[in-house]
Design brief:
Number of helices: 2
Order of helices and strands: HEEEEEEEHEEE
Distance between the termini: 50 Å
Helix content: 25-40%
Largest sheet: 8 strands, antiparallel, barrel
Strand content: over 45%
Strand order of the largest sheet: 1-3-4-5-6-8-9-10
């Protein structure tokens, strides 16, 4: 009987420590975190990079009792490159660089002292590419200059659709942040076999 009581006491103590650790992580997560440039699509037509900022908010009211979590939004600064190929009247290669933004929202839940479950809602994903931000790299003549300007809106739309498809694939693969470590202004974690380092921009208010 004494052994049973001792074992239950140890189990209770371990549970309390585990709860304390999940609470600690949940307290450190809220705020704004910025990542570094990362390639997220590289195919025959478009090469793109993204710099993500994750805004994490704690929301105890939406969580069951004893569960730590809340909402998050991932904002992306996008940059993509493509080329005009096979268009008569252009001096090839004529490169195009576009910039844009993306956002997606979801929820997070601490499931261990170093693991965070993430659920991103694909219906909240938005991608915007500004036609006026399309930059042309190459030889532009008086003859093809107006044509280049005229195709900028269609180029921005097509690249925006391509980026959105790539981001759907990117975010649908995110289910959990593993081995989360927060030390000072840095947050390190893994998604699958990829390591990430984000820098705190501001703490939650």
């Amino acid at each position: 009987m004494k052994g049973l009581i001792y074992g239950l006491t140890l189990l209770g103590a371990f549970s309390m420590v585990s709860c304390d650790e999940t609470a600690r992580l949940a307290k450190e997560l809220p705020g704004s975190w910025a990542g570094t440039p990362e390639n997220f699509t590289d195919n025959a037509s478009v090469t793109a990079t993204i710099i993500e900022t994750i805004d994490i908010s704690s929301n105890p009211d939406m969580m069951p009792k004893g569960v730590h979590g809340g909402t998050l939004t991932i904002a992306g600064m996008l940059s993509a490159n493509t080329q005009i190929v096979g268009q008569p009247g252009f001096v090839e290669p004529l490169g195009l660089t576009v910039s844009g933004r993306s956002t997606i929202s979801g929820t997070w839940t601490v499931i261990d002292d170093d693991e965070v479950a993430v659920s991103l809602d694909p219906s909240t994903l938005t991608v915007s590419v500004d036609p006026d931000a399309v930059v042309v790299n190459g030889v532009i003549t008086e003859m093809n200059g107006p044509r280049v300007d005229s195709i900028k809106p269609s180029v921005a739309s097509a690249i925006g659709q391509s980026l959105k498809m790539a981001l759907v694939n990117r975010y649908s693969a995110i289910r959990k942040l593993d081995d989360v470590k927060i030390k000072g202004p840095l947050m390190k974690f893994e998604i699958g076999d990829t390591d990430y380092v984000f820098t705190r921009q501001s703490a939650a208010q």
